[in-house]
Specification:
membrane, 264 residues, alpha/beta, ATP binding, 28% strand, six-stranded mixed sheet, AAA+_ATPase
Length: 264
């Protein structure tokens, strides 16, 4: 087994009496931006929740760097993997600095305050997401896009090399969606962070991701580069739409026709 992977084997998972994932195998390599894509209800978020431990698999197992999750101490795992759930909420009145400082918990005792190193990392993390100087702002007063970047800064403050995000662009307008995805792509390039997220927009997945995991009815239908995954055949079989070739950033992909702007 490649030690630099996040891997799930034979994952069976769901909610109450409903099984969503039924025997899913997945291996995610480090160093890439990977997106889970597919129709609503196909199991994207369930797979993310199962891989992060938010949902306990009914059978199968999850391992990281060749070691089962159950063998990791939570605090030690947090030094390697930062997780951003779909709907994070901040306590009323909490400041940006206080929220981002929570990312430092894995690196100190519970009773210790912020050291000079902690303050340095907090500032660096906010700068990395374009929020330098926001330390004293109250999180609830920020825009949706700014709040999402504060949560991302908290993840960066963990100094983990893997970021797992469940639908990070949900409820953001198009401009803030693209802004956040660009920040994540830049973090992947500048810090060599491994980034995995759930995404709905195929055009954004083609533009910002190195690898796609295409799901259908709780199964992984295809995993590979956007060029390998976004084909006329997969679009028709998974989304029931006709595809059309489109050029994005010098690469050609097959996208639903509604995404493709006709040439004048």
């Amino acid at each position: 087994m490649n030690s630099n992977t996040l891997q799930g084997q034979g994952l069976v998972s769901g909610y109450q009496d409903t099984i969503i994932l039924n025997g899913v195998d997945i291996k995610i390599q480090e160093g890439k931006v990977t997106a889970f894509v597919g129709p609503n209800g196909c199991g994207k978020s369930t797979l993310m929740k199962t891989l992060t431990g938010a949902i306990k698999a009914r059978s199968g197992n999850v391992s990281f760097k060749g070691k089962p999750f159950s063998d990791w101490k939570l605090k030690e795992l947090a030094k390697h993997i930062a997780i951003l759930p779909q709907h994070p909420t901040a306590p009323e009145g909490v400041t940006v600095e206080q929220l981002v400082a929570l990312g430092r918990v894995a690196h100190k005792k519970w009773y210790q305050g912020n050291s000079s190193r902690d303050i340095e990392v907090i500032k660096e993390s906010l700068s990395s997401v374009g929020l330098a100087g926001y330390e004293d702002r109250v999180v609830s007063t920020l825009s949706g896009g700014e709040r999402q970047r504060v949560w991302l800064a908290m993840c960066l403050a963990q100094e983990a090399q893997w970021l797992l995000l469940d639908e990070p662009t949900s409820y953001l307008d198009l401009g803030h969606q693209l802004e956040l995805l660009e920040v994540l792509q830049q973090l992947n390039k500048s810090r060599n962070l491994t980034i995995v997220y759930v995404l709905h927009e195929l055009s954004q997945a083609a533009q910002f991701c190195d690898e796609l995991v295409l799901m259908k009815k709780g199964k992984i239908l295809k995993q590979g580069s956007p060029l390998e995954v976004l084909t006329e055949e997969t679009l028709e079989s998974v989304f029931k739409v006709k595809g059309k070739m489109a050029n994005i950033d010098g690469f050609t992909y097959c996208l639903p026709q509604s995404y493709v702007r006709e040439e004048a």
